[in-house]
Amino acid sequence: MESCPIPIEICELIIDFVGEGPPQDPERRHNLQQCALTCRAWRTRAQRCLWQVWHIRSSASINLFVDTIRRAPDSLVSYIHTLVLDFYDIRNIGPSGAISYPLPRLNELLLTTKLANLGELTLQGAVGPGSPLQLLHPNILRIRPPMLANVTVLELWRCTFSSPRSMLDLIWACPNLASLDIDDEWTFLDGTLVTEEAARRLVATCQRSGACCKLEDLDFSFNLSSDSSPSPLCHALFNVTHGSIFGSQITSMVLDVTMKQLRECERSFDPNRR
């Protein structure tokens, strides 16, 4: 069937309905594939729904994803808008219990130039020593890898970083970042507190590189109890006026903090700013 007598707007609503649900649902993918084969009028919308969201949940799936975007036509890869990397499932557990990650494929993914329209990125479950975010070479992030060029929404859930700077390198590598959500289970292997001087150096680096110049929405949860000592990033954030390691354009901010941490905020953020 080469054409469809039904108005295309109605067809697209039907295809969007078929495309609802978890992106990895086999039935959803099968139905969208059948829609793409129905007629030319349905093909583009069905392919967009198929390719728009990817949830990577295993070592095999990340290998498949990297190989797929390498071979696929640019017209299909351009539909990819949302990518979720669930490192908890991507990790490999050896016979002795040692945990490893497919780091070469992750590096290859970061450096690909084909994800030109990737707008939303979620990293979750990269926990503990040996996590890919800890092992990732800082130079890969500091050259601003192509994959992150157009990311506007970044979510970090249950992630372990080697240091506050390594976490900021990832955030700063997204030049068009507009929304940042960091949950309350992030940790650093380096527990050294960030001094006032070190925090100012971080701010200078942020300003010099032009990082976070478009960041407007910040949702930040601190993983500390009321009796805990301030974390390194807590110091880096609050030891400098306006927490400017995240730029100076923030207009909407949610901080999930304890009362002890809230007292640290009083001198660091202008109460007249909203």
How would you describe the overall organization of this protein?
There is one protein chain. This protein is an alpha/beta fold and 274 residues long. The chain has 13 helices and 11 strands. The chain has helices at 8-18, 26-36, 40-52, 59-71, 74-77, 87-90, 103-110, 132-135, 138-142, 164-172, 196-209, 232-238, 259-265, and strands spanning 53-56, 82-86, 92-93, 99-100, 120-124, 153-157, 160-161, 179-182, 187-188, 217-221, 252-256. A hairpin with a 5-residue loop joins strand 3 and strand 4 (99-100). Helix 1 (8-18) packs parallel to helix 3 (40-52) and helix 2 (26-36) packs antiparallel against helix 3. The model is unreliable at 224-230 and 265-274 (pLDDT under 50).
How many strand elements? 11
Oligomer: single chain
> How much is the radius of gyration in Å?
21 Å
Q: Strand order across the biggest sheet? A: 1-2-5-6-8-10-11
Shape: globular
Mean pLDDT equals 77
Distance between the first and last residues' Cα: 56 Å
The poorly predicted ranges are: 224-230, 265-274
Please give the share of residues in helix: 40-55%
Biggest beta sheet attributes: 7 strands, parallel
State which percent range the strand residues make up.
5-15%
